[in-house]
Amino acid sequence: MSAPIPEPKIFACKQSQALAEDIAKSFGIPLGNVITSTYSDGEFQPSFEESVRGARVFIIGSTFPNSDHLMEMLLMLDAAKRASARHITAVLPYFGWARQDRKDKPRVPIAAKLVAKMLETAGATRIITMDLHADQIQGFFEKPVDHLFGSTIFLPYLKNLNLDNLTIASPDMGGSKRAYAYSKAMASDVVICYKQRAKANVISHMELIGDVSGKNVVLVDDMVDTAGTLTKAADLMMERGALSVRAICTHPILSGNAYEKLENSKLEELIVTDSIPASQSHPKLKVLSCADLFADVMRRVNENHSISSKFLM
């Protein structure tokens, strides 16, 4: 007779406290107790206020800037390792620094690879994340990576909208694979935006590949930062005769004047998850919870069950 599977422990980094509480509730266990001490200069020290010896530990925290969020995850991983946890899973609903996944010009870092190595060195024995900016980031890790798809959250919502003449759109060439996956699930057409950047977060030119006249368009992307690409694409599509334009973006970074752009754009709705806590509410912003998805995968990992169904678009 096999030994019973011990109950895991779930802990939260401060930036993902609300999401972690929802995940723990869906999982069916209370969130673990962590106390963070802060020095006057801003240095901080997290402390587990309960034993984790021999336990499977899940540490939940999105690593969006500022860098304190990543540092907190690293410190908690290190604390769990030094407290003799048996398995330590870093649950990163949003994997920050992922846009730096290659050398796009000389003398720049590959930050995504550096972050991967830091997480492993700190003590992570497994990574669970969602909608990486680039699939190949999984290869930066030597530990198992469970890369979940936000489409399992978005597709039911999208189907319930019952949009006629639906067309899926990618805001850039790099997102075409994601757009085709959504279009296959929705049995719809696909259009793609071609853009050129003057510099990071600044678009110099955008052109549309495909016809959107008389269509209800849904843009899909992994993240929305300044919202410049999405709002420009939405305005362009409405000019080309689209009936409506919505956007699905897994990670709502929404920095700078993103909310102002959203307000002034022709986007009807921006649908996101709570992988990053929205800094403010907005009538055009629809937030879908990813808590049940992560809780289900964490439960399957703890019980050594297959999670392959969660990898399907």
TrEMBL record:
Residues annotated as domain Ribose-phosphate pyrophosphokinase N-terminal: 9-123
GO biological process: 5-phosphoribose 1-diphosphate biosynthetic process; purine nucleotide biosynthetic process; ribonucleoside monophosphate biosynthetic process
Enzyme Commission code(s) on record: 2.7.6.1
Keyword Transcription: no
GO cellular component: cytoplasm; ribose phosphate diphosphokinase complex
UniProt cross-references to CDD domains, sorted A to Z: PRTases_typeI (cd06223)
Reaction it catalyzes: D-ribose 5-phosphate + ATP = 5-phospho-alpha-D-ribose 1-diphosphate + AMP + H(+)
InterPro entries for the chain: PRib_PP_synth_CS, Pribosyltran_N, PRTase-like, PRTase_dom, Rib-P_diPkinase
Sections of the chain in a coiled coil: none
GO molecular function list: ATP binding; kinase activity; magnesium ion binding; ribose phosphate diphosphokinase activity
Record keyword Zinc present: no
Keywords: ATP-binding, Cytoplasm, Kinase, Magnesium, Metal-binding, Nucleotide biosynthesis, Nucleotide-binding, Transferase
NCBIfam families on file: PRK01259.1, ribP_PPkin
Protein name (Swiss-Prot/TrEMBL): ribose-phosphate diphosphokinase
Organism annotation: Aureitalea marina
